Amino acid sequence: MNDMRILERDVDTNTIKFAGRDVHVYYGETEAIKGIDVDIEDKTVTAFIGPSGCGKSTFLRCLNRMNDTIDVCRVTGKITLDGEDIYDRKVDPVQLRAKVGMVFQKPNPFPKSIYDNIAYGPRIHGLAKTKADLDDIVEQSLRRGAIWDEVKDRLDAPGTGLSGGQQQRLCIARAIATAPEVLLMDEPCSALDPIATAQVEELIDELRTNYSVVIVTHSMQQAARVSQKTAFFHLGDLVEFGPTNEIFTNPKDPRTESYITGRIG
Ligand SMILES: Nc1ncnc2c1ncn2[C@@H]1O[C@H](COP(=O)(O)OP(=O)(O)OP(=O)(O)O)[C@@H](O)[C@H]1O
After folding, report:
1. For the residues of 168-231, what is the DSSP string, one character each?
2. Does some domain include residue 215?
3. Residue 237 lies in domain
4. pLDDT in tens, 115-141
């Protein structure tokens, strides 16, 4: 029932947030992404699926220049966010990552209080003028992260003391706190049990009213439940990209069909 409700919720007509053109990514001599073109829409959940090693995480990391931190990694081609080239010399990757937040596979709260986990980003980006402003950002972020009710009475307790599912929602709240426009999620539920997974999926569905969300997932059920668009990657190519229900019910490429029916991957 829950799944149907998520699928049936109306999808807005969307503007393009990210546009990638002829994007190649190399680790040394190895080409991990082989010249892909993609448009990622605003206020939409886009799922990246495909067999292990096909380049999903590599391409996701291109979108907030996390690959810059890997010495041997080189990105060519063009990626724009709202029409601006994110690899332009003028772009500060730290500012870019405030706009394009990221949530990782394993929940990774800072070894700080719940409050300070959320307040950290707004403090370094100067988003709050007063303590009251900061309190407000912390509360709003925890509310949007669907964890406020569980933590409001213990904001001074360590973030690392929460359950895995709570930690992941804390990390999502932390990513939201810098007022990003896009959230990138790299297998955000892989360390969570089914109940925590359902809570995070519910949250992802809510987040798309305000954000563009891109999620890497190994679970085709999850892609079907939470995304409106799906991109299927295979050996560094973007083989097929389209509405999730079409990819899952009527794939055009035989490689997509083999993957979704469990014959490759
Ligand atoms: N830091 C790195 N240094 C060198 N090669 C890398 C690095 N990260 C990824 N690769 C290589 O790039 C290719 C794509 O890897 P990537 O992690 O993007 O795939 P993936 O589809 O996300 O895989 P998985 O589903 O297993 O997480 C693989 O061949 C991988 O070995």
Report:
1. HHHHHHHHHTT--SEEEEESTTTTS-HHHHHHHHHHHHHHTTTSEEEEE-S-HHHHHHH-SEEE
2. yes
3. 2-109+182-260
4. 999 999 999 989 999 999 999 999 999
